[in-house]
Amino acid sequence: MRVANYAVEKTCDKYILIRDLGPWDQFPSITNSAEEVVEQLACTLLGRRLFYIDTEGELTELVVEDGKFKCFGFLSKEDL
Questions:
Q1: Strands (DSSP E) along 33-78, which ranges?
Q2: What is the pTM of this model?
């Protein structure tokens, strides 16, 4: 499977924030390739949370456990 086209928007000691860039006729969204995105970023997380801005502009969390995608977590901009 192809991996989403994304950019790292912010990195801090608590989280990494990425943004889905598309174009979605050429790349899957972060939502649709969550496992692969986490696999790419797992070694850089170092215990930090992984947030992303999805195709609709919504802030979502890719919950990571033991270096693997576990589930989606929904939050607000105040969580940043």
A1: 49-53, 59-65, 68-74
A2: 0.90
